[in-house]
Amino acid sequence: MVFSSTLFLFYFLPLFLILYYLSPAKFKNHILLLASIVFYSWGGPIFIFVILATTALDYILVKQIEKSDSQKRKKTFLYISLSVNLGILFAFKYLYFFTDNIDQLLGTAGIAPIGMNKLILPIGLSFFTFESLTYVIDVYRGHYKSLNSFRNYLTYILMFPKLIAGPIIPYNKIGWQIESERKTTAEMRLSGFLRFIFGLSKKVLIANVLGETVEELYKLEPGNIDTVAAWAMSIGYTMQLYFDFSGYSDMAIGICKMIGISIPENFNFPYISKSITEFWRRWHISLGNWMRNYLYIPLGGSKGSVSRTYLNLWLVFIISGFWHGAGWNFILWGAFNGLFLMIERLFLNKYLKGNLSFIYTFFIVNIGWVLFRNEDMSVSLMIYQKMFSFNFIDVHSIDVRFVFVLICALFFSFSGMFKSFYQSTQNDELFFVESKWRLNCLFAFSVVLFVLSSSYLLGQDFNPFIYFRF
Fold it and tell me: Of the residues 30, 284, 324, 396, which is catalytic?
């Protein structure tokens, strides 16, 4: 089940909210946990037992970490937890990748292949694995005490708004809200509703529309793809990916706000960045924070030599690329971004001070997303060749609707440059300090967006979930 489905919009979410609001405060977490279990079990009932088992094991191991007086015993329990969590992630997400590459090497040597079948990936596996690791590691580090309630910990891991597409939230950022008796005001519910609808519209009315045409263009024979089509494919996917993922984050933030829980922002107008370094502070913020706190700093961060710092930075981005998917294209994409981060640190940052530096950033990011999308490297190379061949032929697959939505997407992506627009989208309180007329207009506009989004979902079959593989 995904947020942008009629099942979720018309049945699951309304029923959940009705039960949640009608239940006494002491039962709200029970409703949230039950809804989260049903939500996850809907598409993969077998995998819910994997999550429940690993979560129970982590809860027990963390208790042992906290009780242990010996540092050696603490490390033993920590390593058991890390091995189980990362082992499950490896088995489902990466084992086939490695065996497939080994099979190719064996084939060149004339040796019989292993011949392993690809396992079905549990949805959201990377997200809840990383959250489990943050809890275990932070308790081990002494950052906070372990939980006394397994139900609260299970609610944190399984909480459905963030379960399948993040944000990745450390327990200390949200745990106190789960443990407390939450109260929601009418303003919180309304601002959450507005945020959810805006996120749904980004996903359905922009990302899906762009993605549909991009898919059609990728089905063309290479001889029918000219420079215009190649750039439409690359920029279209660049916008599709942003509005798809940020739309899901907005919906997650909106749902949480409707139930009285505040979770951090995950995107901050990344395409207005003036460097690749800045871009990665604005894109998928929760993953960037996780990589910095649990990988980059433990590797030594920037405390060692200059060469060691660059090596740490590059390793982190290669691993970050591999986190996104088990494919060489993701590894290359991570290395590509890491390379530009190093170049900027070496000398380029001093030249990226002007107001037009975002053009450089957008160009590099757009080139990188071509790698990200295509597991077949030959397809990416073909797109690059077409983008810079300056060959123009008549391609009819780029329709007026795509052009209009792409222009809207570009406008909204770069609108963060305007201070007033940035403030109005980042501060929910502005919904209520302004006039009632403005609030009524926002509400009416959100209803229109909901009707349009629902109509699209009812009338179209194209509704991909890009981040399923993550």
Answer: 324
